[in-house]
Amino acid sequence: MQASLDRGFGRCSVLRSHKSAIKKHANRIMDRIIAPAKGLEAKGRALRAKERALDRDGIAAVGQSIRPGELLVQKICLCVVIES
What we know:
The chain is mostly loops. The chain has one domain (16-84). Helices cover 7% and strands 5% of the residues. It has one helix spanning 2-7, and strands at residues 32-33, 75-76. The model has no long low-confidence stretch (mean pLDDT 77).
């Protein structure tokens, strides 16, 4: 039984594919993917728990385990408000 556990028998990894579209809006504004805040680790502060899985490009790193509530893509949509 111990040899089976050492070989990985009975262990499971779940891999899922997720897609996120970058939209181009009618007012010529596009969604953007932004990186996590720069330099926080250098200043001694940790990244927010939701950003733990993000790589420097703002997308979750390959092979990273994702917990509930964490970000996969840090995408923003700029909105223009026209005041009259």
